[in-house]
Amino acid sequence: MGSEEKQSEKAFSFEMPEYYNFAGEVSAYAERNPDKPAIIAVSETGDTKRVTYRELISYTNRIGNSLLSLGIQRGDKVIVLVPRGVDAYAIYLALNKIGAVIMPCSEMLRGKDIEYRANHAGAKAVISFAGGVDEVNQIRDNCPTIAHYIQLGEPQTGWLSLEDLANHSNDRLEAVDSRSDELAFLSYTSGTTGGPKGVMHVHGWPCAHLAVAATYWLDVREDDLVWATAGPGWAKWVWSPFVSTLGKGATAFVYQGRFSPEKYLQLLEQHPISVLCATPTEYRLMAKVSGIENFSLQSLRSACSAGEPLNREVIDTFRRVFNITVRDGYGQTENTLLVGTFVGMEPRPGSMGRPSPVVKVAIIDESGEELPVGEVGDIAVDRNMVALFKGYLNDPERTARAFRGNWYVTGDQGRMDEDGYIWFEGRADDIIISAGYTIGPFEVEDALVKHPAVAECAAVASPDPDRGHVVKAFVVLKKGYEGTEELIRELQEHTKNLTAPYKYPRKIEFVEDLPKTTSGKIRRVELRMRERQLASQQG
């Protein structure tokens, strides 16, 4: 580590203000820069919509006032089930501005997923796009706390039109004077057992995230056009497309079409995108495009990747072809960027980088003691870290299990080298990370065992060259059923219908029995090791 880097780390300080409202800060910026582009949204057919900061805040305020008129108040929890687009930004800002709690939900969630979140949190309202309405309608009778159903576009029976509500509302709205320790975001993340966990983040969280991640990792500047590819249903959308972009007064680029590596490269060439934040899978597939050398990404200045470690060959390809170093970063729904290759830092391909200036990260053993350089252990964070979550909603037991002494334990394992760089070694638990999605095996298994052919099953991560890992299910069939290709396809469709489609098992292997402990618990670790060995033999 150079002496300049050490000095800059010592000089960095951050103090959380007592009161903070992110939407209020964005509104203040809009007053000073009303004609500055806030969002440029491009459809799959190439239609482009440009929205200024003045227009965004006007729409935000009208949504906020309409929600207040319905009785949605400070502290009320609201499910947001919308795809990429201008509406997502305005809805998030409106909820934040009135002090309501935002519950980000992927538009791919199924009815049962939504029902669990609604009842677990006691949600008061749902704001959904047309594609989510049918799923919500299936579970309306099971969600007694939801009082308002609000829809984008032409509403179905029993739903209110967000557009009509906003059109009849005032476009002036003061932000609530929210305390920094007041609940603002409630994101759900998969667990190894039981349902998803409700991760609680407060109003001050965006302030801390802007201070480090947006500044020293993404390197967002006011004149940037920022393309962060995450969808609004994910904590990563809050990180980069939302907080890091609008909080810096930059312009958000939004592509509303399906992923295609060729299309992504075309968009990067056609638009002056200067900051890109994408998943490792997206980078991997772009790097494999035939004729990648024919694309010119002259505007691209900063490129970041998060979700899982990025392959060295991908980093090398972007360096060779575009003279851009794709910088890795590591964080979780429960925190913010913990470790990264920050601007000006020497990148070490394969490493996640070094701890953020405001984060104390260590590799610890089972007793909570820090391990020496080079030894593999649990990646842990000082429990007093300013951007750490405030616990799992209504779940003190799982909250307690996330901590070990003075440390929050991430569930990932790694090692630290002599210069403080951290190298990822794998999950310490059974969580599956596939193409940036976090998937709990319980969710997959719970869906599979509902099929009449399945006696029991186990889902694990199986190595994959493009997605990092995919879900693989080992299935024990009931008597009378035969493991055929047709049954594999049937089980895959069955899983897609019961839970979000990205969780379905891309691989299924029929087995006579599953490895278990003496107490009868499935040894997923054994199945994971088997998959790793198979992958190493094949490639």
Characteristic key phrases:
539 residues; alpha/beta; Rossmann fold; GMP Synthetase, Chain A, domain 3; nine-stranded mixed sheet; five-stranded parallel sheet; 16 helices; 26 strands; 32% helix
What topology emerges from the helices and strands here?
Elements: H1 3-11, H2 22-32, E1 37-42, E2 48-52, H3 53-69, E3 77-81, H4 86-98, E4 101-104, H5 111-121, E5 125-128, H6 130-139, E6 148-151, E7 160-161, H7 162-167, E8 183-189, E9 197-202, H8 205-217, E10 225-228, H9 235-246, E11 251-255, H10 261-270, E12 275-278, H11 280-287, E13 302-306, H12 312-322, E14 326-331, E15 337-340, E16 354-355, E17 361-364, E18 377-382, H13 396-401, E19 403-404, E20 407-416, E21 422-427, E22 432-434, E23 437-439, H14 441-448, E24 454-464, E25 468-477, H15 485-498, E26 507-510, H16 524-538
Parallel strand pairs: 1-11, 3-4, 3-5, 5-6, 6-7, 10-11, 10-12, 12-13, 13-14, 25-26
Antiparallel strand pairs: 1-2, 8-9, 14-15, 15-16, 17-18, 18-20, 19-20, 20-21, 22-23, 24-25
Helix pairs in contact: 3-4, 5-6, 8-9, 10-11
Q: What about the largest sheet? A: 9 strands, mixed
Q: Tell me the name of the CATH class of the largest domain.
A: Alpha Beta
Reported by name, the CATH topology of the largest domain is: Rossmann fold
Main β-sheet, spatial strand arrangement: 2-1-11-10-12-13-14-15-16
Assigned CATH architecture of the largest domain = 3-Layer(aba) Sandwich
Name of the CATH superfamily of the largest domain:
ANL, N-terminal domain
* Structure class: alpha/beta
How far apart are the first and last residues' alpha carbons, in Å? 35 Å
Radius of gyration in whole Å, from Cα?
23 Å
Q: Which term fits the overall shape?
A: globular
How helical, in percent, are the residues? 25-40%
Overall pLDDT: 92
Number of DSSP-assigned strands: 26
Number of domains: 2
- What percent strand? 15-25%
Number of distinct helices: 16
Poorly predicted runs of 5 or more residues: 1-11
